[in-house]
Amino acid sequence: MTVERYPCPLDPTVQVVELPFGEDAQTHAMIVMCGGEGVILLNENLREEPWFTPDHLNAVLAHELGHLIMGELEEAAERWAIDKLGELGFTAAQKLLIDRGIV
């Protein structure tokens, strides 16, 4: 099993751990608390999807950071992520979340 670990490009205080989730995975990523800090678990297979771009990665990471900041509610995490991506100038990733229609 391949495992890659690196600081989140949107918030370097949060670690990202990429590992295979398996064929039956229902998600691309999740945030977990580990030692009092958030860690984003990212399905390494996400990069193999035909639609995948760096903007998709930023959208996924921002959404998970939104859960870390705002809690479990999808709408609150998504709204936070949209605002954060706009703040950072990642408008293409922001548009992906807006077009997704969660908020």
Task: Tag the structure with descriptive keywords.
4-stranded mixed beta sheet, Zincin-like, 26% strand, 103 residues, single chain, alpha+beta
What's the short story on this structure?
This protein has 103 residues and is α+β, with helices and mostly antiparallel strands.
Describe the structure.
With 103 residues, this protein is an alpha+beta fold. It has a single domain (4-100), classed as Zincin-like. 41% of the residues lie in helices and 26% in strands. It has three helices and four strands; from the N terminus they run ββββααα. Strand 3 and strand 4 form a beta hairpin.
Name the poorly predicted regions: none
Can you summarize the main beta sheet? Answer: 4 strands, mixed
Kindly estimate the percentage of residues that lie in beta strands according to DSSP.
25-35%
The 3D shape can be described as globular
Instruction: Report the average pLDDT across residues.
Output: 94
Cα-atom radius of gyration = 13 Å
Helix content: 40-55%
Number of continuous helical runs: 3
Element string (H = helix, E = strand) = EEEEHHH
Q: How many strands in all?
A: 4
Q: Which structural category fits the helices and strands?
A: alpha+beta
CATH topology: Zincin-like
How many domain units? 1
Topology:
Elements: E1 4-8, E2 11-19, E3 29-34, E4 37-43, H1 54-70, H2 74-88, H3 91-100
Parallel strand pairs: 2-4
Antiparallel strand pairs: 1-2, 3-4
